[in-house]
Design a protein that fits this description.
The complex is a heterodimer of chains A (469) and B (199). Chain A has 469 residues and is an alpha/beta fold. Chain A has 16 helices and 18 strands. Chain A has a five-stranded parallel β-sheet with strand order 5-4-3-6-7. In chain A, strands 11-10-9-12 form a four-stranded parallel β-sheet. In chain A, helix 2 links the parallel strand 3 and strand 4. In chain A, helix 2 crosses helix 5 and helix 13 runs parallel beside helix 16. By secondary structure, chain B is an alpha/beta fold. Chain B has a single domain, classed as Aconitase, domain 4, CATH 3.20.19. In chain B, 36% of the residues lie in helices and 17% in strands. In chain B, helix 4 links the parallel strand 2 and strand 3. Chain B is globular. The N and C termini of chain B lie far apart (40 Å). The relative contact order of chain B is 0.17. The chains are: A alpha/beta (469), B alpha/beta (199).
Chain lengths: 469, 199
Amino acid sequence: MANTLFDKIWDSHVVQHVEDGPEQLYIDRLYCHEVTSPQAFEGMRARGIKCFRPANIFCMPDHNTPTHDQDKPIEDPVSKTQVDTLAKNAEEFGLNHFGMLHPKNGIIHVVGPERGLSLPGMTIVCGDSHTSTHGAMGAVAFGIGTSEVEMVMASQCILQQKPKSMRINIEGTLRKGVTAKDIALYLMSKLTTSGATGYFVEYAGSAVRNLSMEGRLTLCNLSIEMGARGGFIAPDETTFEYIKGREYAPKGEEWEKAVTYWKTLKSGDDAIFDKELTFKAEDIEPMVTYGTNPGMGMGITESIPALDTVPEAGKASYLKSLDYMGFKPGKKLLGTPVDYVFLGACTNGRIEDFRAFASIVKGKKKADRVTAWLVPGSWMVSEQIKEEGLDKILEEAGFEIRQPGCSACLAMNDDKIPAGKLAVSTSNRNFEGRQGPGARTVLASPLVAAAAAVTGEITDPRTLINFEC
Amino acid sequence: MKQKFDIITSTCVPLPLENVDTDQIIPARFLKATTREESFFGENLFRDWRYNPDGTVNKDFVLNDPTYSGEILVAGKNFGSGSSREHAAWAIAGYGFRVVISSFFADIHKNNELNNFVLPVVVSEGFLAELFDSIKKDPKTEVEVNLPNQTVTNKATGKSEKFEINGYKKYCLMNALDDIDFLLENKDKTEAWERKAKA
């Protein structure tokens, strides 16, 4: 027996092994948003069936929601229909639904953990590749397609081949100005966007242990960008401390019982992984991407790799990518003018991300050339920003805080980066057109985004004075 | 769409790019549909590569080149990375592809193709490079994909390879059955698992 935490959680949820096929895996929690669920509900209706365990399903719109004037009807009629359809479906099938403006609404991967809905030891799925986020709670969480969403609605199960397991250790102490986002971008730059395909990743090592829950959520969120099905971190005191008292978390005696169980959730000392990698925290610097997939990243002071370092089969894609970005091999990005800055998304839309951003811009002014969109991941984050007075700091520096949603991460609402404009974005993907047709995206941490927002160019945040993180 | 899969022999559409992500296969702005009309998604397959920003047809893109056609899409490695959107598989199916050949697929997209009766065929890097070469030399190059035997054959060179698929999924594809049919039949086992888990 391999004795990894992944095995423990996965194996304990196997209902049956299908002969010469996948495993039937029981799912504890299904999250649904408005984009990848309507066809699943449609399928359920066509089959004339109800949800098998409706209480375990939580729905909320996030992709299409505008980040302003949410009290008014959504202007785009197609977006409005999709959001309204989710509300109608949730009602028809008797599911939990946190609609727009509901105090519990927000990006599904921000809301799940912050409400105590995603807990250690659970299996969690959603029709969204960033479901890996919830792995930070010590859960096996992964993104699925709409047919698979329908499977879970119909049976609370999914048929799935068990992925292989990988452990990635980050040992040592992160340097000043280096965040969980930089760890993830660093890993992608080393492993490429397919380096962990077929695997479920356990993140471990002292640098990972020392991450806050917010940092862990960011790291696990980006697992899919290395191709991994999911990524998780064994639960520990940091996890329990974070969960305690949250709305849907176990209470009283149930809490004690749960923690006793959660403490058993770790890989054995003799655990065998299909692959194990170790990196030094000290080797990581603030990261930026220069291409059109998240694996095309480098330290902020480095230069874009020369063409002769790229394998032959990948050269056409590499040149297409740099051509789209308007960048040249061998050049540095430091000093490149920036048009847009986006702080938010399921990757970096949490309170700690806003604190980091505020720590840089405090006492400074937004650069005139920059349009900045600061979008909290949920109404809870939005409230925290106000409680901590971050809104004042940000407003004084010339920034405006918008209403929660996925926003410019994938530009399904109005928040589209115009064609040709360069955005420094804390989101998760720099694919062609991801933030709007023709938009050019540099992925980075909230610190790098803040530094760009006040200087108007790609800037190493470590050079700015009131640096606290 | 549920349809039986057996042996497909077809010419190919080559897309020799690596890391083709699902945002390219179907951009996010086309995900707003609330129904599963494959023709709608098919029309918007590779939308931003097929059309120029001003809406005119991009004649340089392979789908707009009448030299190439067929039911088989041949793509560079790491096809379908990124978002889990099944709309990408609907777009591929809706356009009329029944097979995608690559040396490497992203996990979620691969499952999405299988769940839509599009067969992802993983071949070696060498087979893929040779196939691109064959198609370049002769766009009428045919490939035979034989699901019962799990073989893929480049008919220009005669080169053949076995490909992997588990027995269950193969049975489903050959008999037009989907996973939900299976799961619904197995509810008693799910309930038994729940009772045991609660105990």
